[in-house]
Amino acid sequence: MLRTPATSLLRSSLARASSRSSSLTVCRAASTHAISKPTLANIEKRWEGMPLQEQADLWMSLRDRMKENWAELTLHEKRAAYWIAFGPHGPRALPPPGEGKKVALYTAVGVGVSLAFFVAIRMFAGPAPHTMTKEWQEASNEYLKSQKADPFTGVASEGYTGKGMVQSPPKSA
């Protein structure tokens, strides 16, 4: 079994860490320069058509510039950073023209189809059950009184003046 001494592992990890920090320093120093005007010119119209990698690179360079003193930012950089962060693109994009009409139309169609189903079901439904007549419901009230159901506030209570179970019109002959 081959063993590597711990000191050599420590030395190699330190060497890698120092090389990373030096490369970060170089990138950091490169980001302190102003972004060129042609890169930021007309960004509002070009942003949606830019490749994602180019958008990300531009935003990262602007973000690095904003980490420094904002007084050193150019007017173009400030405008571009504001527009990229808060402009009407991505989730804040303006709705396409006619979207409200389309939503209203689809809603009306949905309500119309639902109404058609309701009417069709009501047309082909059987007659109302025999328990849905006024006579049956009055008999139910008498039965509840005889059973003393809900004696405090219901039909069986003293001085009750409500309709009780009655909710249907009388049976038509």
Automatic annotation (TrEMBL):
<dbReference type="GO" id="GO:0006123">
    <property type="term" value="P:mitochondrial electron transport, cytochrome c to oxygen"/>
</dbReference>
<protein>
    <recommendedName>
        <fullName>Cytochrome c oxidase polypeptide V</fullName>
    </recommendedName>
</protein>
<dbReference type="Pfam" id="PF02936">
    <property type="entry name" value="COX4"/>
</dbReference>
<keyword id="KW-0812">Transmembrane</keyword>
<dbReference type="GO" id="GO:0045277">
    <property type="term" value="C:respiratory chain complex IV"/>
</dbReference>
<feature type="transmembrane region" description="Helical">
    <location>
        <begin position="103"/>
        <end position="125"/>
    </location>
</feature>
<dbReference type="GO" id="GO:0016491">
    <property type="term" value="F:oxidoreductase activity"/>
</dbReference>
<keyword id="KW-0560">Oxidoreductase</keyword>
<keyword id="KW-0472">Membrane</keyword>
<keyword id="KW-1133">Transmembrane helix</keyword>
<dbReference type="InterPro" id="IPR036639">
    <property type="entry name" value="Cyt_c_oxidase_su4_sf"/>
</dbReference>
<keyword id="KW-0809">Transit peptide</keyword>
<comment type="similarity">
    <text>Belongs to the cytochrome c oxidase IV family.</text>
</comment>
<keyword id="KW-0999">Mitochondrion inner membrane</keyword>
<dbReference type="InterPro" id="IPR004203">
    <property type="entry name" value="Cyt_c_oxidase_su4_fam"/>
</dbReference>
<keyword id="KW-0496">Mitochondrion</keyword>
<comment type="pathway">
    <text>Energy metabolism; oxidative phosphorylation.</text>
</comment>
<dbReference type="GO" id="GO:0005743">
    <property type="term" value="C:mitochondrial inner membrane"/>
</dbReference>
